Amino acid sequence: LGLSEGGGLVRLDAGLSVVERHVHDPVDPGSLPDNAVQAILRRRNGELWVATANGGVAWRAASGGPFQRLRGAGQGLEVSGSRALLETADGTLWVGTDDAGVLARCAGCT
After folding, report:
1. pTM across the whole model
2. pLDDT tens sequence across 83-99
3. How deeply is 92 buried, as exposed, middle or buried, from its count of CB atoms within 10 A (0-12, 13-18, 19+)?
4. Do the beta carbons of residue 76 and residue 105 sit within 8 Å?
């Protein structure tokens, strides 16, 4: 179970004990891009996607590891504020943003 508490992202086990906590660290590019998590999506391939209020979108491989940020020119998502995430049946990822409307990212892209 993943929860956002305004202070990052927390993963709980079935007994509601904290298993992992992810927060923004300005010196760690593998951390969350922002602590204000707006949406969380576990894709069918197991990737964990996180939309943040001020840091754009980040994803983490199903096997874990650092978060990869999608923000800035050439990364497919040139927005800072993201509010919603949705994966369609064909695997397309849709992102609802503050300043650019709704954006789609192709099914085979990460």
Report:
1. 0.80
2. 889 999 988 888 888 77
3. middle
4. yes
